[in-house]
């Protein structure tokens, strides 16, 4: 039976087109991981993906759009993990455990694509906060903070917890200061513990 189109939904992607898309994005991610965003080459991506370079251009248009597609592809997987995936990142763990797992996972996600995210956040200056992903992260963290500490200003604390995860700061810490990701995660743990400590807790 042929699947009928659903109003408001884009047309279903052909199986071969979907396979090509996945192969191209995987190849582009590999090139960026090896050479950085500036080293992204449409010819090299096509060669690794086993498709013609024309296919890459028809599908993504240019290097910039291909780079952002790589970011978006990973972003969808990350969002699915913390919204619907297994605990502790997904539902089923305590709010404190989920909060810690989210900060760690976002540190990994930002580190993996820091160069591309810096490009995306650079113009305009408030681009990071206009992006839909930031709004979702903020909403998720504010919910968890409110569950851990109901009397706190959850909206402000969510921003405070996201501030150290800006891509340009992560890139500076990793490349200029030589910090391993585990050190960044340990710092996030310390920050979260301090922000979420209730007034009744001993200092």
From TrEMBL:
> What are the recorded GO MF terms, alphabetically?
DNA-binding transcription factor activity; transcription cis-regulatory region binding
Where the record annotates domain HTH tetR-type, the positions are 18-78
Stretch forming the signal peptide: none
Q: What are the protein's UniProt keywords?
A: DNA-binding
| Residue ranges: DNA binding | 41-60
Q: Indicate the transmembrane segments per the record.
A: none
* PANTHER family found in the cross-reference section: HTH-TYPE TRANSCRIPTIONAL REGULATOR RUTR, POSSIBLE TRANSCRIPTIONAL REGULATORY PROTEIN (PROBABLY TETR-FAMILY)
User: What is the name of this protein?
Assistant: TetR/AcrR family transcriptional regulator
